[in-house]
Design a protein that fits this description.
The complex is a heterodimer. By secondary structure, chain A is an alpha+beta fold. Chain A has helices at 4-29, 82-87, 145-157, 168-172, 213-216, 287-295, 309-316, 319-322, 348-357, 360-366, 402-411, 428-442, 458-462, 466-471, 488-496, 515-526, 530-546; strands at 62-66, 96-98, 109-111, 119-121, 126-130, 194-198, 201-205, 245-251, 255-260, 278-282, 300-301, 325-338, 373-375, 417-424, 446-453, 474-482, 550-561, 566-567, 585-586. Chain B is 73% helix and 2% strand. Chain B is built from 13 helices and two strands. Classes of the chains: A alpha+beta, B mainly alpha.
Chain lengths: 588, 335
């Protein structure tokens, strides 16, 4: 029969379809592999926040990091992401760094390229560092203090091409506002406020006393760059390593492979162990795939922002999986900024009405529950020095107090307020939190309308533009903030200092310009004694809360899945709760 | 034929110019209507809390301080004649076709695009073969035996295929064939490096994408074949004593192919411009992923590069479709 062949093909196709359908059903019923290591033991939930998990000095193997995004840059002079600050130490040694340690112990500053901590003089306006001896680049040439000076110059003063990192050195170094950068100023002298009297000494002269300068030099911007090898924006393709690993390959936006740096000398480095033979960094990996690979022990999540919502639900329902996770502070505060320049929030009583009205439990639920954040009542999170437990607007069960809120409204001369609240449209949890806040406020007569803006332009075009917020009557703004370095100043300066208010890209969303707070910030950073300095940060926190310009909502937490075959795993407060990437090894 | 191709090529160049101008205008003019200034735009390519001097430096370096028509002219000139860019310590000449440098990473766009085209091309080509073969085969079988068990079963599967989103089928394929039973590779391997590994790593993505498209092709083929098989010339062919296979394939299917070729050309052209969701799900570093990065970073050179590339593929695919019409249907003449 003529029709036979098509019918046979049809049967085969039917069989394929049937097999496919069964596979789909099987998948729905499938169970992931047990997440246990070779000996079947797990260290327990939150183990890496208390101690080093799987401590080992075993060398060899390939360690894989996966990231669902792409970093701003692998160039140590052109990055601002916490995970790149953490990871880049494998190929770029800054003058100082953080000692790998659990939780807040990880905030301890230790010398890296420097032989010892900075020596302040002139009341904290001059800082001198001596480099270790015997330091070499991957090509065997000596690392000198001039290379450190050059690295700071290129990263802070060539912003037209290396624009993505912070510019603290530009702000704080004497003459920083006049220097044109090493690409335009070709003089041998360079920036005169950085001196290199010999090959192992570097001296920084600042505009003002800055007692936390050791934190600033812990940024990868102080990792040495040999001027002769610098190719500007293309340096990222041929980075010259000063760390324990060097680049074997770099594929922009896709992958980087690191191998041992043979010219790294462990005698010059008490911190690094150089355990894996190879480190592969995979970029733009589907977030669900990252989670699957982490749970299977095949990768570490480089971003360190925690597992996806679906994976979280799976983990929380499985005690054996939960035993291999770390739920820790992410060094960030989720808060509502109250715009002090938009009426009627220029009146402190109206701001206090908002403080009392909000049901923080509903906000916490919207943010993902206690696993994603602890209810907050202070500006400084618990893992930042200067934090002191307080609650200026305590309400029963943190559920808000409508009566007190209405009292404050009355004191403000209002019975009802109409305003707008901004949130980032591509952050569903932030939108949910804003929606919960709107519901709370409505109960006391504050009608807030939600305005959503894309996160990429949130600060440059919308919430961070004072003129825009005035024109659009945006009195309330959703915000998250993490410290650039783990200190009160590193956390508070950009969000509370009146002098930091800018016309675009502003992060002091409340536009809070209080002379006492400004003065306290200046005093704190000039105070040498750490205890005294931290108590000043506590005072700033209290003053800010008394002025009710910020409604702390949640101390952000991350839920990290801990790969079973990874060794030396420790979650550190220095890098937003991420695992410390300096010495992670693998048993594979 | 040659004059036809030349006319179409000229029209394609004009179309690409219009597409680039419209993209340029959307990028700059719409935000301006909402009040965005050049300073605010430049701030997006800087780290946190930039100084005024930083903003001015970036604005100048990216040419954002120049009138729009000058910026557009520089872009077009770069594609035709190349351009020179400041890397910091040195300058570099970007040879034509130069699509500029990323506003954010300052890396050249064209080499990035060309490194990604083979990945998207591999994904699209493999999936296209699968969906075309399976879709047309299922459509023909269903049309020959309408309302039979197989017809209903196939059309049911086709409906499911077109209804299930890639986020579901793709994730499921990964879970099944890379996690539960790791029979397929994870990381893309170029065809030139290892053809079998290339196919092995792409197979789950091909199947997921083909499932989505083959459903449409099955239904298209079925309806076309049902209509064609009832035409007089089919009866005549049978009356002449031709074998049924010949009647179905040479007379029935050939006549029903025209709309399928049209849709196939458009689908393939669009896919070559970036299979965004499939690339995302399967972590493939193709053109679609690059497009998403460009949009996320508000990075004009990346957006323009991908838009023009996608438009180019659609234009080429349409041209090929028109040429194939003539081959598939003798009534069509290219003049």
């Amino acid at each position: 029969m003529e029709g036979n062949p098509p019918i046979m093909r049809r049967s085969a196709l039917a069989a394929v379809a049937a097999i496919g359908s069964v596979s789909l059903l099987l998948a729905g019923c499938s169970k992931a592999d047990d997440n246990k290591n070779d000996n079947g033991k797990s260290a327990g939930a939150n183990a890496a926040t208390k101690d080093v998990v799987n401590a080992s000095s075993k060398k060899g193997g390939t360690l894989t990091y996966e990231l669902s995004d792409v970093p701003d840059s692998f160039d140590p002079g052109n990055t601002y992401y916490a995970y790149m600050y953490n990871l880049s130490r494998l190929w770029a040694r800054p003058l100082m760094t953080f000692e790998p340690g659990p939780g807040e112990k990880g905030n301890t500053l230790v010398p890296d390229l420097a032989a010892s901590k900075g020596v302040p003089s002139d009341g904290g306006k001059t800082w001198t560092y001596k480099l270790r001896s015997g330091l070499k680049y991957q090509d065997g040439t000596a690392i000198t203090s001039k290379d450190v000076k050059y690295a700071v110059e290129r990263s802070n003063f060539a912003r037209d091409v290396l624009s993505l990192g912070p510019n603290y050195f530009q702000q704080f170094l004497a003459g920083g506002d006049k220097y044109k950068g090493p690409y335009k100023d070709k003089s041998a002298k360079g920036l005169s406020s950085i001196e290199t009297p010999d090959d192992t000494t570097i001296v920084f002269h600042l505009k003002q006393a800055f007692q936390e300068f050791d934190y600033l030099v812990a940024a990868p911007q102080t990792a040495p760059v040999p001027q002769a090898k610098d190719k500007g924006v293309d340096y990222v393709k041929s980075i010259v390593s000063s760390g324990s690993y060097k680049f074997q390959s770099y594929d922009e936006g896709k992958q980087a492979v690191l191998v041992r740096n043979e010219n790294w000398d462990p005698k010059t480095d008490p911190l690094r162990k150089q355990l894996p033979d190879k480190i592969v960094v995979k970029l733009k990996v589907n977030p669900e795939t990252v989670d699957q690979d982490v749970l299977a022990g095949n990768a570490i999540d480089l971003g360190g922002t925690g597992v996806q919502a679906a994976t979280q639900a799976k983990i929380l329902n499985d005690s054996s999986m939960k035993a291999n996770t770390d739920n820790t502070y992410g060094g960030r505060l989720v808060y509502l900024a109250i715009n002090t320049t938009v009426k009627p929030f220029d009146n402190v009583a109206c701001r206090k009405a908002v403080q009392y009205a909000i049901d923080k439990v509903s906000v916490q639920t919207a943010e993902g529950g206690p696993i994603r954040g602890e209810i907050a009542s202070t500006v400084l999170p618990p893992d930042i020095p200067g934090y002191a437990k307080a609650d200026a607007y305590a309400t029963a069960g943190n559920k808000g107090d409508a009566a007190k809120a209405k009292e404050q409204l009355k004191a403000c001369g209002k019975t009802a307020i109409t305003t707008n609240i901004s949130a980032r449209s591509d952050r569903p949890q932030e939108i949910d939190a804003a929606t919960a806040i709107i519901a709370s406020l409505k109960k006391v007569g504050i009608n807030a309308n939600l305005k959503q803006f894309p996160s990429g332009k949130y600060f440059t075009d919308y919430a961070g533009v004072p003129k825009f917020t005035q024109q659009q009557n945006i009195g309330l703004m959703m915000m998250q903030w993490g410290a650039d370095w783990p200190s009160g100043y590193g956390f508070l300066q950009q969000i509370l200092n009146g002098k930091a208010i800018s016309q675009s890209g502003n992060t002091n969303l409340s536009q809070y310009n209080d002379k006492d707070v400004n003065a306290l910030l200046e005093k704190a950073i000039a105070t040498q004694d750490t205890t005294e300095r931290n108590s000043l940060y506590t005072q700033i926190d209290k003053k800010t809360m008394d002025d009710a310009v910020i409604v702390p909502l949640a101390y952000f937490k991350v839920l990290l899945a801990r790969p079973q075959n990874a060794t030396n795993v420790v979650s550190t407060a220095a890098f937003s709760g991420q695992y410390d990437y300096l010495n992670i090894g693998t048993t594979k | 034929m040659i004059s036809y191709i030349l006319r179409r090529t000229f029209a394609a160049v004009i179309l690409l110019l219009v597409v680039s101008a419209v993209t340029f205008a959307i990028f700059f003019l719409l935000p301006r209507l909402a009040g965005q200034t050049a300073d605010q735009l430049a701030t997006q390519y800087l780290g946190k809390s930039p100084s005024k001097a930083d903003i001015l430096a970036v604005k100048h370096n990216l040419g954002l301080d120049q009138p729009l028509y000058v910026q557009y002219w520089h872009f077009i000139k770069g594609i035709v004649a190349g351009a020179t860019y400041d890397l910091g310590p040195t300058t570099v000449h970007c040879n034509a076709p130069c699509f500029g440098y990323s506003f954010k990473t300052h890396q050249a766009v064209w080499p990035e695009l060309t490194s990604r085209i083979p990945i998207t091309g591999s994904l699209a080509a493999g999936a296209a073969v699968l969906w075309l073969l399976s879709g047309v085969a299922v459509g023909v079988v269903s049309a020959l035996k309408p309302r039979s068990f197989f017809d209903r079963a196939f059309m049911g599967v086709a409906l499911a295929g077109v209804s299930l989103p890639m986020f579901f089928t793709g994730q499921l394929a990964i879970l099944l064939f890379r996690v539960q039973w790791p029979i397929f590779g994870r990381d893309y391997v170029p065809f030139t490096e290892n053809p079998s590994q290339w196919a092995n790593t792409l197979f789950p993505a091909w199947c997921s994408l083909a499932l989505l498209y083959s459903a449409i092709y099955a239904r298209l083929t079925r309806s076309g074949m049902l209509e064609t098989m009832n035409e007089d010339f089919i009866r005549t062919a049978r009356a002449k004593g031709l074998r049924e296979r010949k009647v179905v394939v040479r007379h029935g299917l050939r006549a029903a192919l025209t709309p399928i070729i049209t849709v196939f050309g458009m689908d393939l052209g669009l896919l070559l411009g970036g299979a965004v969701i499939t690339e995302y799900v399967f972590s493939l570093h193709g053109v679609g992923e690059y497009a998403v990065q460009g949009i996320t970073d508000n990075d004009l050179p990346k957006i323009l590069g991908v838009t023009l590339l996608a438009a180019f593929f659609v234009v080429i695919a349409n041209l090929l479709v028109d040429l194939l019409y003539a081959a598939a249907d003798p009534r069509v003449r290219l003049s």
